[in-house]
């Protein structure tokens, strides 16, 4: 039970890391390799707000979200829209966007280095135990799990029941046909990309309460997010959540029952297995 | 489009800057520096390596430069980011030696990066006064690369003194003999764990929990829970910066009840004390200094004034001392690199850590090995030949 809860909490962390990328890749078709840098930037923001004004990260995220939304919207409009316009097919857009956002990730690291320096940033926030079913867990991890559940829930509801959300899903399923039924693909793609960035930055702010980050750690999170998004299936919120939880539980089970040294191996075995038997991901749709 | 004016402008600028550069370099000492500003080791290098370099250059130049053959020469610092990539370190050292024509090159940061660069330092005849490079291979290395010097100690000494500190606590009746030992599955962590295990067993300790975890593990609670279940008297982690923080936080959350709690790299960072505050009291870590010595206090104050950040309580001061050594050697024998290397081998240097000299293995035999957070300061509790060790205190909870 203890192992299961620890695993689910870790899964919540992974969901925070991967949810934004799923929106960006699934709808806007941008494989955003600068995802980790946005996450670290969100963490920096929370760190600075907390250490300079004692502003709680729970409140900071309400500042981080609109800022990251605006920033990512700008990135999409200025840098990625031209790529979308000139791309003849989806493959070309993916190649172009991978190259462009790979470069963007270096710019992100460089900017953060020059503004904040390369030092580790870490602070203690709610590093107190909470008791759940007889075992203790870090309050900051529990809090970030609750926030992850709220965010994923809100996204799921929005994507399934609101007009904009349904349109976004339509674009994810059939970008060409979506335009025929009067959906503003350009506008909504930018919206989805910006929303993905905001979700990632909020995730970063929450994660910074218990992980030690520095300007160059972004790539670690990008890789984790990629694995989760691909395992879960592109463009499906449920897939990302399930994959994140599975990964969290698997790593904790292996670390607790076998050996913490084998967690990476176990994660990649699971990744391989899913790629072999369900290449489109757990919830992905088979390409027609 | 007419490109001529632009071309003219560019060539004029190039010639002008070349002239300026050669005019400036006539009476400056070009010092090269290559260390991570990005990549996995950037966080450590930003605390330990770069600020001490900037401080040293600033102080030397404010004092009018170094005296070389009766002439005052200013220092010009040429710095490169190696992205924590040995290939980049090698390229940068090569560039410093051949293109930038550096007089001297400051040793890189980290054991692996120093080893990667050693053949090039050797080939171009540069003395390499390594600081953040801890290994047991000093005899072999100095044999192979006679220009390579070591200042921060050996792996076995670091591990052995932890075992000794814990043995003393046990023999004084302060705790039992059950140890939980974990390590990060990466070079330095594995090396330390391998060295420590037979030492613990030889000293009569029982290792009740032993495991390793991959670099970059995001949830260390299974490690701490596993250790707690084995009910150890002491917890020892051969850890790297992010997991040093992560293990400590989990130990706080789990209220890990041990008499001694040790984490390795980054425990002496000022950020550790700032983050954990009173909970850090009694935590043991790798390294240490004598924070009450006037020389260290003066250095720490200047460090904060010039670079805006505090030095760590271990390798920062040693990095600065390695530069003091280089400066004293240059002032004694001039800019000839072979002369400087010969001078390094035979002289004793006055540094902020006290006198430093190199033995037949090019190693400094006097260094700090174990420190402990006491009253908000990380104080050395064990050393090889250094003054100012303070008694160890018991870890008393996490409040």
Automatic annotation (TrEMBL), chain A:
Cleaved signal peptide residues: none
UniProt subcellular location: Cell membrane
GO BP term, example: amino acid transport
InterPro entries given in the database record: ABC_transp_permease (IPR001851), BCAA_transport_permease (IPR052157)
Keywords: Amino-acid transport, Cell membrane, Membrane, Transmembrane, Transmembrane helix, Transport
A GO CC term assigned to this protein in UniProt: plasma membrane
Transmembrane segments: 6-23, 30-50, 56-76, 97-118, 138-159, 188-211, 264-283
Domain of life: Bacteria
GO molecular function: transmembrane transporter activity
Recorded topology in the membrane: Multi-pass membrane protein
Family named by the database record: Belongs to the binding-protein-dependent transport system permease family. LivHM subfamily.
Record protein name field: High-affinity branched-chain amino acid transport system permease protein LivH
Source organism of the structure: Planktotalea frisia
UniProtKB/TrEMBL annotation, chain B:
Boundaries of every Leucine-binding protein domain copy: 28-374
Signal peptide coordinates: 1-26
Any single GO BP term: amino acid transport
Gene3D superfamilies associated with the record: 3.40.50.2300
One Pfam family named in its UniProt record: Peripla_BP_6
Keywords annotated in UniProt: Amino-acid transport, Signal, Transport
Coiled-coil positions: none
InterPro entries found in the cross-reference section: BCAA_transport, Leu-bd, Peripla_BP_I
Keyword Transferase attributed: no
Similarity field: Belongs to the leucine-binding protein family.
Name recorded for this polypeptide: Leucine-, isoleucine-, valine-, threonine-, and alanine-binding protein
Organism listed in the record: Planktotalea frisia
